[in-house]
UniProtKB/TrEMBL annotation:
Entry's Gene Ontology cellular component terms: cytoplasm
Name under which the protein is recorded: Cell division protein ZapE
NCBIfam families per UniProt: ZapE
Entry keyword annotation includes Chloroplast: no
MF-aspect GO terms: ATP binding; ATP hydrolysis activity
One GO biological process term: cell division
Originating species: Homoserinimonas aerilata
Length: 348
């Protein structure tokens, strides 16, 4: 990052480029990153704001509190054939739409838990297996009191089997599991692959979770439906440079090319310590693979609370109707909600 003189004579930093950022992330670093994202470092059940129009949100708070209080319950086998009806299930699963506070509740539970504990997205855990290998991942995570999995989504059969096996081993050794998703556990993978061929794994996961439905409207839009803000090309460079803190400026297509070369688990390194990014020439997606990579990138931007300034097509209009009608609809809508917040500066 360099420094230049602004028209008024003051000094300001020149934006860097996402393409120049280091994306190296080893297995130990990946484990160290398994903590709640920045905006949830102080999350608690006391500062969760339930919507009174949706009693299920208040019920979820009570259920999380009860799950935390029962953390000393004896471990159970996630995939055992027998289970006492009186035995508390080792997992709790929050199912609901985006923006209803599921991640806040999950982070609150993580903060309440004692001992060694981990918090990560579904893709971070599967990437950890890829980096360390399955056996070493089990060794690294075994003994944890709590494993929190945000946005539990099964997009392919391999992930289904992998997470079934991993969670089974961890729970058998005493680890409790808490997860969030936009999809009930017995419907994971629906519309994305032949889920009926993998019902054994999916049902094994679902049967061991206490599932809670968390209803509500997107908290980011309770007061304002909003749209993603667009900045004219001729103003974009100056506005990004005026942001207080490290920034980057790149063409949209260049960023998509970068995301295709970097595993999504490493996107966190692209946004680490940034205050804002600039995207020039945004346009609608034509390939679903690019769209899904960008969704994963948006999640990391939102976790790190990195502001987005963009020109071109509004970022809430980049997912075409045929994509929104498919199996990844909820992912795209969640990304749109977050992009509206990130471009409008409504960071939480």
């Amino acid at each position: 990052m360099t420094v230049q003189h602004s028209p008024d004579g003051s000094l300001r930093a020149t934006p860097g480029s996402l393409l120049d950022r280091d994306t190296t992330l080893g297995g130990e670093q990946m484990v160290a990153h398994l903590v709640p994202p920045r905006q949830f470092l102080a999350a608690s059940l006391d500062n969760y704001r339930p919507d009174r129009d949706y009693p299920s949100q208040g019920a979820a708070v009570a259920a999380i509190r009860n799950f935390a209080a029962n953390s000393s319950s004896r471990p159970s086998r996630l995939f055992g054939r027998r289970k006492s009806s009186e035995e508390a299930k080792p997992g709790i699963y929050l199912d609901g739409g985006f923006g209803v506070g599921k991640t806040h509740l999950l982070a609150s539970l993580w903060h309440m838990a004692k001992g060694r504990k981990y918090f990560g997205t579904f893709i971070e855990y599967t990437a950890l297996v890829g980096a360390l290998g399955y056996a070493e991942t089990v060794v690294a995570l075994r003994g944890a009191t709590l494993l929190c999995i945000d946005e539990f989504e099964l997009d392919d059969p391999g992930d289904t089997r992998l997470m079934s096996r991993l969670l089974g081993e961890l729970v058998a050794s005493g680890t409790r599991i808490a997860a969030t998703s936009n999809t009930p556990p017995n419907a994971l993978g629906e519309g994305r692959f032949a889920a009926q061929d993998f019902l054994r794994e999916i049902d094994a996961l679902a049967s061991r979770f206490t599932t809670l439905r968390v209803d509500g409207v997107d908290f980011r839009h309770r007061d304002n439906s909003g749209h993603a803000m667009v900045i004219p090309d001729e103003e974009l460079d100056e506005l990004v440079a005026d942001v207080d803190g490290p920034t980057t400026m790149d063409d949209f297509d260049a960023v998509l090319g970068l995301l295709s070369r970097v595993h999504p688990s490493r996107y966190v390194t692209l946004v680490d310590e940034l205050a804002a990014i600039g995207l020039r020439g945004v346009h609608a997606f034509t390939h679903q693979t690019d769209a899904l990579r960008f969704v994963a990138f948006v999640d990391r931007l939102y976790d790190a609370q990195v502001r987005v300034l963009a020109s071109g097509t509004p970022l809430d209009e980049i997912f075409p109707d045929d994509m929104l009608a498919g199996g990844y609809r909820k992912k795209y809508l969640r990304a749109v909600s977050r992009l509206i917040a990130l471009t409008s500066g409504q960071l939480s």
